[in-house]
Amino acid sequence: MTNLISNPKTQFLLGAGLDVLHHESTEWLENIAFWKDEAKFFDKLLNQKYPTEENKYVYLNMLEMLRKIHGDFINQLEKDVRDHEGMLAKLVQNKSGQSDWDYREKHRHISSQIKTMKNEFRAFKRIIFEYVKNL
């Protein structure tokens, strides 16, 4: 019986050299910066026109989702990636207490969080676009 790999790219990357994982981490930081800019744009967009009584609940829900995504998840994710990069620096310098396996396991975990954030933000943008389209 063969086992299927759920995400071959992840499996490949986790076996890749540390320089490849570092490159992926820098891409994550670029995506996070872009998501922060998008969140600011959506906040400004939502606050330009106040909702009618019939769509007030949807409007308030979107603002809450935006605050949760922008305030909590994105900032924590950025901190985790920066800490992860610090872990790589210690690993490359052969500092004690750092192992290749720990770094790769943390990388896998952050990769999963990035994927979750990407999907949640995409769903949030669909809601925003639909809301603005119906104004």
Succession of helices and strands: HHHH
User: Roughly how much helix do the residues carry, as a percent range?
Assistant: over 70%
Using only C-alpha atoms, the radius of gyration works out to: 19 Å
Q: How many beta-strand segments?
A: 0
Tally of separate domains: 1
Strand content: under 5%
Report on the architecture of this protein.
The protein has helices spanning 8-14, 18-48, 56-92, 100-133. By secondary structure, the chain is mostly helical. It has one domain (18-133).
What labels would you give this structure?
135 residues; mainly alpha; disordered N terminus
In short:
With 135 residues, the chain is mainly alpha-helical.
